[in-house]
Amino acid sequence: MKTDCPWRLRVVLQDKGESCGQELVIREVKNDHNHAVIPAAIARHPKKRKLDESHTEVAAEFLQLHANKKLVQQTMQKKTGQFVTLKDLSNLQQKNKKKNPVTFGELVDHLRSLKNDLVIQAAHDGTEVQGIFVADQEMLKLYKSYPEVLLMDATHKLTKDRMATYILMAIDGNGESEIVAFFLTQNETHSLVLQM
After folding, report:
1. Is the pLDDT of residue 158 over 90?
2. The ZSWIM1/3 RNaseH-like domain covers which part of the protein (predicted)?
3. Residue 97: is its pLDDT beyond 90?
4. In the chain, what are the domain boundaries?
C-alpha cells in the first residue's frame, strides 16, 4: 500500500499462431516490496476498510440511534468480514450530523410547544432571538421566597455554539444556594442582559 513500491509483474500478449490465437505470458516478476505485506496490516488500510454503500447506511442508522460504537463496530465486522475502526464510525457519525444547527427562535418555539411549566423569555435584537431565559414554577417560587441575594455565574463555551450560559442562584433560609433560573446569550451586551 506504500507508494513507489518496486514490486512488478510484467505480462505481455503473445501470438500462438493463426490457428491458436493469443495468450498472456508473464515476462517479469519482481517480488520486492518497500512495505510490510502482512495480511492483517493490509486489512487495516483505509481503502480496504471502506464499507460499501448498503453497510454504510446500516452503520449510519445505528449511530443516529446513539448505539454503542463498540457494538456497531463488532456487528459491522461480523456482517462484512472487514476491519472497522472506531475512528471510521466517528467519522461516519460526524459526516451524517445535521448540517443546519437549531436557531434560537426554533429552540424557543420547541420549548413553548412542550406544554410544561417552563417560563421562557426570549430577548430580541429586532431581527432575531439573541438570548433565552428559562425557569420553571419551582424556581420562580424559590426566587420570590428569597429575593435578597441573587448570585450570577457565567460559563462560556459550554454549548457547541460557544454561547454564554448564565445561572442565577438565590440563597435560601439555610444559607444554601438554589438555582432560580438560567439563560443563554449569543452576546453579552448590557441591553441584552437587562432584557433577561
Report:
1. no
2. 122-196
3. no
4. 1-37, 50-97, 104-195
